[in-house]
């Protein structure tokens, strides 16, 4: 199959866009003359200009520098927060899909109960215990994030488990762990990664939404969510305060969606 | 229908319902424990900043919060079993269940209207994209909706309000208006916000699915077997819709109690905002009521999806009955 | 190949048609209805957007503003205050205070009626005050040492004290001393407060405790010809931005608490304006003087000197607040806002103070912040930067509002930002709450204790109004400014945003409003 070797265009475009964003958030704070957390109230809420291409926020901080600095925080957070649920969910899905029986039933019940548990109640409760900020976000998505991977991988594994080669592997004396990790995992991983790409966007948007609900990342750490949320009351009068950080989130969303799309195509091609 | 088939169906249905009840019970107990273990005190929230310690203690006593946890749980269960309610709301001084029932219609309207919009937007887009696979229309359909993926709902809502309500004045800024027409009118913008957030997922999965079915062996086999075209078409439709339906069922589950942000932005008095204000005020009975009724809604949707799935594709029914728990 | 998909296409077409019908319904709606809600001719219903619903009308046990500012539309006290916070006669047409400060005599206005048409007599006033005193869950209890409340005749109410207490008159101006019919007019107390009857300009007509409350005009109101509107709707709109947009399009006529950051937009809006008055509120950093670091007065002074409160005011108030120099806002009599020497904005002195403290090389501490309050978050960041300049590292500990309250009331904080507010127009309302270590609030949970201040504040409670009382409060304010148990930041104006055609709205310094003179269009 030659088609499988061809890298989908959407994947290339997505990766390029993501690389460009990453480069921007790394470089801009290094070359910017402004400190992302140093206030200068005398120049608060200036519209975009040559001196401040993105304008300034309520405390007179340069928004371009802040958007970039926030990008470092949010992109790192996105990757860091998704890692554990990805691993846990994939493993749980593998076991449930391969073993079936009680393991599957327990995981299904747990994930169904978690999904039936109102999401915002969980978010709030975690924030009450940890205080608002990174810790709470990490914990919330550890609790909820694995489900989507577990479900995806379980389905894929279950359909593979019925195939003949699995049975022959078992007959040949391969251990379950070895079959799972060496044989099944590589086959289902691409599906999990596809889900990962789109789930990362959802996570980023969720972090932004938490900022709006007052449960986001605590000041003064720059973060797109808090910036958009703080600026929302100025939307009609000072559009740049929330729109420009919002554009950053949209760009990352598009990049990840393209990557997910490309991965999906590559897998199916 | 033969007797064994009927028995299998009963077993399957029974399993689904037992599972659903277990889920609701888990949620109820989980919510009960969690809300009481987090910091914060309903008395402090209701009585205000200047409440004296005696007032606080008095209120704790009246609410039974000075009792040990197991006793509180026993009285909670007692109330639930005898009245079907979780008790009087601490903040609003009225029955929690009545409050949930009063707020539920708005949220259901919102979910219903957004579902209609999602279908209305996704089906044609996915069909067009699938039929023009690889063409520029396909690329457009796949890339353009992803823009809304990165847009938080509250922000989209605010922009829609500014454009369509404040500037153009074609839709209301928020709230609801009486009557079915008034409801549709009030729900237009808020349900569009939800639909915009969900459409990209649905379009993509539906498109992929339609493409899969197009290329599936069984379509060729069926045709080779001489099955009439109409029957084949039915198969294709069925096979593309089922997974999309299941995926959408999951999304709708999330919307139960998850319409908070849209309700907040559009000033809609639904269960989402009710839940959030209950959480803020640590209104235990009310949190409990909203969480339980939302969980009921979620399992109702998932049972409905499962049954609908079973009806669309009887193979699911047969297979599930044969190995209950193995493939759910 | 494609013709196989006719069925799918038919389904698509059906759904699309349904969607079109839906949007058509929406469009026809927009054609038929005006979104600004106006009907030609003068409107007589005033719709007021408020962030929280009215949950109880019990004037004795309630204090939170969502209830208080509904209660004060129905129940009225003997005396009240005007837009500047000056005490004025209200249901009483006049009052006298005996020379020794022990006897207060009030003469009721003639022709006073409750909203059900029955006459108001002195017996009703006696019942109300005595019932208030007996309420063990009173939110705003009368603190004077009252010996008796009597009705020498139908129009006279007499309150006798065991010992003089100057703030009594101001305390009586609270909505919690409103007059209810004797014995609740024969109803049970709980039934009465579901359908309250008072002397106020409005009567509760429709009430959803988690939603809106509709008042209708009290036909028996003692101010003849008032109120000018026939209906007043308290509409619960939780989201501030939503409320602003509803005001812009005319879906509401006023907003109770517009966010400061929206004010310039509303002030200069085509259809909107704002009404303001001075407030009794000061947003303040409270310093826990029981904390290891903050128990050192030099540390507290260093922080106060490091911070430029003017910057805080500028960043959060959009021109609608004054920088606070003292604990008493300017709207409260005896405030020394214009004459005090504040500990403020002097980096050199800040460094000097810290050098004199036990922690000359700085230290680490946390600011406890209630999440979701934009202005407080901005102020906390400014304090953080200011402290950094003198080598003090402050982290922001952001928690939700309920956790915040539980924590600071358990003295579990180092620095926090909160609002300090007078309940009634007397300096004692703030000073007792914020500087009396023996009160239940332990100097607003700062544990601040200064025997001299305690002695002076007790003395001020019994000193009749005049220069002597002014001197006492001046001394107290200077000591509090120098000891820095808190850093007062800014006193925001009380601001109400309304439609341009609204006239006669009387804005009160306790954040309430009077609607009796309101006219629309």
Descriptors for this entry?
heterotrimer; A: 269 residues; mainly alpha; MetI-like fold; B: 328 residues; globular; disordered C terminus
Descriptive account of the structure:
Chain A: This is ABC transporter permease subunit. Chain A: It holds the Pfam family BPD_transp_1. Chain A: The chain crosses the membrane at residues 75-97, 109-130, 136-153, 192-219, 239-259. Chain A: Keywords: Cell membrane, Membrane, Transmembrane, Transmembrane helix, Transport. The complex is a heterotrimer of chains A (269), B (328) and C (521). Chain A is built from nine helices and no strands. With 269 residues, chain A is mostly helical. Chain A has one domain (4-237, 246-268): MetI-like fold, CATH 1.10.3720.10. In chain A, helix 1 (9-31) runs antiparallel to helix 9 (240-268), helix 5 (134-161) packs antiparallel against helix 7 (176-212) and helix 8 (224-231) crosses helix 9 (240-268). In chain B, helix 5 (96-131) packs antiparallel against helix 6. Mean pLDDT of chain B is 83; it is low at 316-328. A seven-stranded mixed sheet of chain C has the order 8-9-10-1-11-19-12, sandwiched between helices. Chain C has 16 helices and 23 strands. The N and C termini of chain C lie far apart (67 Å). In chain C, helix 9 (309-317) runs antiparallel to helix 11 (374-389). Classes of the chains: A mainly alpha (269), B mainly alpha (328), C alpha+beta (521).
